[in-house]
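Why do we care about 3D structure at all? Because function follows from shape, and shape follows, mostly, from sequence. That is the central idea of this module. The next example makes it concrete: a single protein chain, its amino acid sequence, and then its structure expressed as tokens.
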Amino acid sequence: MSATLYQQQREHIAALNLAYQECLAAHQLDSLAIYSGHARNHFADDHATSFQSYGHFIHWVGMADVQHSWLVIQPNQRPQLYLYAPADFWHLPTQLPEEPWVAEFDVHLCSDKITPPLSGRAAIIGDVIGLESAEQLAKAATLHPDALVRELDELRMVKSAYEITCLREANRLAVAGHQAANAAFIGAAAELDIQLAYLGASRQRESEVPYQNIIGLNQHAGVLHYQRYDLSAPKQRYSLLVDAGRRFRGYCADITRTYAGPDAPGEFGDLITAMHGLKDALIAHIGPGVEFLSLHEQMHRSLADILVAHGIYEGSAESAVEEGITRAFCPHGLGHSLGIQVHDVAGLMHPDGTPSPAPKTHPALRLTRTLRPGMVVTIEPGLYFIPMLLAPLRNKALPINWGLVDTLAVCGGIRIEDNILVTENGADNLTQ
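And the structure:
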């Protein structure tokens, strides 16, 4: 690992410590304990679900799979890391890497699950429900105080140099997976085979992906969160949509690409090209002070132009927006904040922690912030042929070319998604 990354991580932890000290003072706290979390068993079973550590714990230690561990922050003291690492022959115990950042903590390796030592006025954040000590913890501290959590969420909105380096590396690894997925599609693979190709090239297990990969062939590309993998390849290959990511030191990449297959109508390939152009045009408008909602609205105006230019809608672009045509062809938001979580925290609140909900006309929008340098967001315009969304339009006297829509429906839809860093002068595309 590079010395630059190590130095960035130590600087990240130092800045985080200063910020937390200010939070403790503002909330008159003598100690704050952050619980990493733990996996839960499936109901009536002894098999656990997949697990990822609590985001605010990852923010400090950069480890996404640490269970039953605590980080305790107190005024004017070094952070105390209580790492659960029992002697175990059933599982490989958690191990700290031999990296410089470890020296920023007082580390306590715990062979048993502990209750964190707290002093004075204390708070605990994290999912402690189900712990044997939950009742004891509730008596010793305030559990998950909303105002404090909102303030800590806001700290994650603007990324440090270390976090940006991690996000860039996560993107590099994910891109390798996307290239392998496309190659498998060209080779007439089934959805499961494409998924396995992605995992192999991006070097990760399925339990480690930041979200369940979406690998949709043909009409499955029109299911926004398609959750299955067919075992057999279809006879016709119209399209492939791959929405898949990668973690690096707890930070997520979230990339989507759509490809036309050999059996796709010619218009579908042209639409993919147009959507790449739309994505790039939106990125070109990113910069400090830009309202993300305005970018979302610009996406709909540009999508209307594409519908008209490609003969899908035979009215004016203005009427396509006004009549809700573009919302039927693209029901999701333009993007979201990205970081430790794929849909990262604080996207729907103002900097002071007050709510900033999505407008009623765009309820699926996940980000309503004014962009600032250091924010990382996704830009993911879409164009889909989803029967249940288009069906209501068929009963209206609208100039939609239904013959062309029905021809393209076998392809499901298109989504193109890049991960973008807002800079002082504009944008830096992390997805290269």
